[in-house]
Specification:
By secondary structure, this protein is mostly beta strands. The protein has one domain: Substrate Binding Domain Of DNAk, Chain A, domain 1. Helices cover about 0% and strands about 40% of the residues. It has no helices and 9 strands. The strands form 3 sheets. It has a 5-stranded antiparallel sheet with strand order 3-4-2-7-8, with no helix packed on it. The C terminus is likely disordered.
């Protein structure tokens, strides 16, 4: 399932009942910061919309083509409430995305986070008729 999600300060959450215990975040892997419950996900932009895909699975995801991803990180996410939602830290849950804790209150689950590099911008073509240098 996909959704467009607003991010500010370069982050969004996979949050346990909307809690953001930011002081417990472990920033050691660079992309996903697990917390005492839930996680903060870093994005490649400071402020704006990002495309997020989230799918709850009962088993580990199948090995796939890793060449399209700039970075892949797996981390443990603690979810004692059974409500693990993808959320904009400013606007709240993405209604289009499912609860990722399909088994209810599970304690700890594994989250696999993938990030794709934005398209490389094309340099403008100089105008040959321009009189400027």
């Amino acid at each position: 399932m996909n959704a467009q999600l607003f991010v500010a300060e370069g982050t969004f959450g996979v949050l346990d009942s909307g809690d953001i215990p930011i002081d417990t975040a472990d920033w050691s892997n660079g992309l996903a910061a697990p917390k005492s419950h839930g996680a903060i996900i870093l994005t490649g932009i400071h402020t704006g919309d990002v495309q997020v895909t989230a799918e709850p699975l009962d088993t580990p995801p199948p090995a796939g083509d890793t060449t399209t991803w700039e970075e892949i990180v797996e981390t443990s996410v603690h979810c004692p409430s059974g409500q693990l939602l993808v959320e904009s830290l400013d606007l709240g849950p993405a209604d289009e995305l499912p609860n990722l804790a399909t088994a209810g209150p599970v304690g700890t689950a594994c989250a696999s986070t993938h990030t794709a590099a934005p398209p490389t911008p094309t340099a403008p073509t100089p105008n040959p008729s321009s009189d400027t240098c």
